[in-house]
């Protein structure tokens, strides 16, 4: 008799164990859905950039100061974001799909009070009247991006993430959204996983509250992104630790160098084991789950696109500079003139030898669209100086160097950001290597080229876009899903570290 009860108890245990919350042992797992990259999304992203909605906004990545009593944070163009998950807000929970974004720090979703934005009618909206745990806040705020903004106000309610319920979380109810960006989006809002230093209204981020409310064993979260386009499972975020099934070997850890974004120091970047020279002395880099691509300085991205045969728009100004001033640039560098003074000495740049006087970030597109033509010429000159200087270190002849630089001019990324490559040539493209923690992290062509479409309609897109940040904060690299899909990433909040290991 006792045996039967024991057997029954065992069967009951076997049935119920799989149903236990995934937050047991201090770990919370959030499954991610993956949307296939498609031509419509690429074209929409291009259109958005063309209209001035750049990845980190015309105010610049580092611009998050209060202006006129309003709190402003850059909002990225998430049209090409592929990974998103589900959360609940309120009691009972109202469901929303969100981008889990390490490049911002606030949670925001559309509000039921969003009446005049088309985007709100295509997404779930938060209804405060339907939640028994809602607390009014009411402070207004703007989230600026490029040529538009998302406006709203603060509210407070419980937020369900996986099987955790974060109590009294302050978030933004968006009452106005940029139509172009969000009408086409497959998600409702954004859940920021950055530091509080860049949070609108200094709101405590969801992640901070998870830690402060004692919900996790370790102050760590980790990303695994499934790059298999045919897999049903898009990936997983693990709050409170890591899942050993998601990676191979050991993680390489590097310290966070500046709180706000998950920023660290990155070393040299190699194309087919050849140094580009740009980051030999170190470059700032940001790990950003809110973007699909890899963004970096125009000079390096142009070299990469040239090496992989990417087709960009031919820069007339760039070729003109090489043709008319190439010899002079060569001579000045040989004579020992500092690179950042060369263009001013030949009269193509002003502002004490460099146009880098603004702390904001500008894309190549924004530069090309400047009303002052002199600025475009200055940009072309500065790129030429960087390329010539890199080639000088390899002791090549002037004729060979200037010929190569002219070819690089043709590989400057297109004004819409992305550059297309020949799908038939992927096997012959070079590997690209990022140096992190003095260890090589290599991307193969199959990993850094994004494919969309089927059969004869297949389009292959370079995973690199140009994004320029002036010194002293730059050069800056933004490592998005293209990188995070290859390398499992650990965000160690307690020790202020980032860890990278080969994804399983």
Largest sheet: 6 strands, mixed, barrel
Sheet/helix structural class: alpha+beta
Low-confidence stretches: 1-24, 42-77, 352-373
The protein's oligomeric status is single chain
Euclidean distance between termini CA atoms? 48 Å
Provide the fold topology.
Blueprint: H1 2-16, E1 28-34, H2 39-50, E2 66-67, E3 70-71, E4 83-89, E5 94-101, E6 107-110, E7 135-145, E8 148-161, E9 164-176, H3 179-183, E10 189-192, H4 206-212, E11 220-225, E12 235-239, E13 247-255, E14 263-266, E15 269-271, E16 274-275, E17 283-287, E18 294-296, H5 298-307, H6 316-334, H7 339-345, H8 364-368, H9 373-392, H10 398-409, E19 420-421, E20 432-436, E21 439-443, H11 445-448, E22 449-452, E23 459-462, E24 464-466, E25 476-479, H12 481-484, E26 487-492, E27 497-503
Parallel strand pairs: 5-10, 6-9, 17-25, 18-24
Antiparallel strand pairs: 1-4, 1-12, 2-3, 4-5, 4-8, 6-10, 7-8, 8-9, 11-12, 11-26, 13-27, 14-17, 15-16, 15-20, 18-25, 19-23, 20-21, 22-23, 26-27
Helix pairs in contact: 6-9, 6-10, 7-9, 9-10
Structural write-up:
The chain has about 500 residues and is an alpha+beta fold. Helix content is about 25%, strand content about 30%. The protein is built from twelve helices and 27 strands. It has helices spanning about 1-15, 40-50, 180-185, 205-210, 300-305, 315-335, 340-345, 365-370, 375-390, 400-410, 445-450, 480-485; strands spanning about 30-35, 65, 70, 85-90, 95-100, 105-110, 135-145, 150-160, 165-175, 190, 220-225, 235-240, 245-255, 265, 270, 275, 285, 295, 420, 430-435, 440-445, 450, 460, 465, 475-480, 485-490, 495-504. The strands form five sheets. A six-stranded mixed β-barrel has the order 4-5-10-6-9-8. A hairpin with a 2-residue loop joins strand 15 and strand 16. The longest helix has 20 residues, at about 375-390. It is elongated and about 75 Å long. The two termini are about 50 Å apart.
């Amino acid at each position: 008799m006792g045996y039967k009860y024991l057997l029954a108890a065992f069967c009951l245990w076997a049935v119920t164990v799989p149903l236990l919350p995934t937050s047991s042992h201090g770990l919370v797992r959030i499954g991610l859905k993956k949307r296939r990259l498609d031509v419509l999304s690429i074209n929409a992203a291009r259109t958005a950039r063309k209209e001035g909605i750049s990845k980190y906004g015309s105010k610049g990545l580092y611009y998050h100061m209060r202006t006129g009593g309003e709190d402003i944070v850059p909002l990225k163009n998430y049209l090409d974001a592929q990974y998103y998950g589900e959360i609940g807000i309120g009691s009972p929970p109202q469901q929303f799909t969100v981008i889990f974004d390490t490049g911002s720090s606030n949670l925001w979703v559309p509000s039921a009070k969003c009446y005049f934005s088309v985007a709100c009618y295509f997404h779930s909206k938060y209804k405060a009247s339907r939640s028994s745990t809602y607390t009014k806040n009411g402070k207004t705020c703007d989230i600026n991006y490029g040529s538009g903004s998302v406006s709203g106000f603060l509210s407070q309610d419980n937020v369900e993430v996986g099987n955790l319920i974060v109590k009294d979380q302050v978030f933004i109810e968006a009452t106005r959204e940029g139509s172009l960006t969000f009408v086409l989006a497959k998600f409702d809002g954004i859940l920021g996983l950055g530091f509080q230093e860049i949070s609108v209204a200094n709101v405590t981020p969801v992640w901070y509250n998870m830690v402060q409310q004692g919900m996790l064993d370790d102050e760590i979260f980790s990303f695994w992104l499934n790059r298999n386009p045919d897999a049903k499972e898009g990936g997983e975020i693990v709050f409170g630790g890591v899942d050993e099934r998601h990676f191979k070997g050991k993680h390489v850890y590097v310290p966070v160098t500046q709180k706000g974004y998950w920023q660290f120091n990155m070393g040299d970047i190699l194309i087919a084991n050849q140094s580009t020279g740009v980051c030999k002395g170190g470059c700032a880099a940001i790990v950003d789950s809110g973007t699909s691509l890899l963004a970096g300085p125009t000079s390096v991205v142009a070299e990469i696109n040239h090496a992989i045969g990417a087709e960009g728009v031919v820069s007339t100004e760039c070729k003109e500079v090489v043709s008319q001033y190439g010899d002079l640039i060569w001579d000045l560098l040989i004579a020992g003139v500092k690179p950042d003074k060369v263009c001013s000495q030949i009269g193509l740049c002003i502002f004490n030898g460099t146009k880098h006087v603004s702390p904001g970030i500008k894309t190549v597109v924004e530069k090309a669209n400047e009303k002052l033509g002199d600025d475009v010429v200055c940009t072309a000159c500065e790129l030429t100086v960087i390329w010539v200087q890199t080639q000088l270190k390899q002791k090549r002849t002037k004729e060979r160097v200037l010929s190569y630089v002219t070819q690089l001019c043709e590989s400057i990324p297109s004004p819409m950001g992305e550059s297309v490559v020949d799908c038939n040539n992927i096997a012959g493209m070079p590997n690209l290597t990022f140096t992190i923690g003095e260890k090589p992290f290599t991307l193969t062509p199959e990993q850094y080229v994004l494919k969309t479409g089927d059969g004869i309609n297949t389009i292959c897109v370079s995973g690199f876009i140009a994004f320029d940040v002036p010194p002293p904060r730059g050069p800056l690299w933004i490592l998005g899903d293209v990188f995070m899909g290859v390398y499992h990433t650990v965000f160690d909040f307690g020790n202020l570290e980032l860890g990278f290991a080969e994804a399983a």
